[in-house]
Amino acid sequence: MVPCRLIGMSFLLNHTSGPDGTLLISVSSTSVSTGGDTSDVFRAIEILGPGGRVVLSATDSHASDTLLLASVFKLAALCAQREVSLSFSGFPEQVSRQILLALSVPPRKGARRSHVEDSLLVALGRASVTLGENLKGWLAFLGELLVALWLFVRRRARVPVRDIWVILDECGPGALPIVTLISVLVGVILAFIGAQQLRQFGAQIYVANLVSVAMLREMGAVMAGVIMAGRTGAAFAAQLGTMQVNEEIDALKTLGVSPMQYLVVPRVVALIIMMPLLCVYADALGIAGGALVSSLTMDISLAQYFTQAQTAVHMRDLWLGVAKSCVFGVLIAIAGCLSGIRCGRSASAVGIAVTSAVVSGIVAIVLSDAVFAVITEILGI
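^ that's the sequence the OP posted. Answer follows.
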């Protein structure tokens, strides 16, 4: 009789055959912390066949081991399936009674969860439905926002003007350090990349054209928008999500105050005002970063750099970037406020809302920038 062992978290199962054909399974403690395979023990029970007998012995010290109890339950279920009698020796009577009681009640049909992999067509269909619902929610929220903004312009909306100034302070001066760092680095990177290519043709002076046009038309507005989406959009979602968890938004509705007018409109107005200013600030710092690289690495004086940049850019480039920044501000505010208002009632839901606000804001910025690129190409701007 060769003993066979099942290694568990803190125990060993040894099984041997008795003189009368009874399968004896004993439990012993061990310090091994790796899991084992139950196939040998199950195979020994299956060999017995119907009418066999299994005796499981253990001590009271093992009765609190949850992994052992789970293994015992699986063995008991197999014995019941194979019509093998099972008896316990050394187990507390309460434990053995609970195991036998659990086996006496058949599992309810459909209670066990089963994971079924969806086909590619089903996955695409669900993704399409989800995308349509999200787009519908965005459009509905945008419609309500336009109505609230129209009432605000006509001075018929209940908008706390003090909150607009507070949010302006949070969005503007608070964001200047990170906008400064990113804008200067973007200008430096553009200048280095342009210099590597233009140096081959002896046209290093045109680095000024590259940096100034790129910053005014694209990079200034886009980088400011991405920074504000990760900073301010996430803050909006966290603030409104926390208010939703604390049922403050429900309290506003009970008092007859529109959350759209009281909470969303001040944030949208603040971003519409602040985003163009941050865009112009980012443009100036990006061009200054390019000038720094040109003067230090390409022997181009600051006067030559800014003179060349002045001949390359036009006012329409600046106004295009400013217009983009206004649109980006609205999209960031919508993404943050929509995620916050639709937040669930738990702490984890607030985290999900913040993540959704940042992702939605950045995606909306990229998509709207692509639309701007197509429109400007068609109009020749």
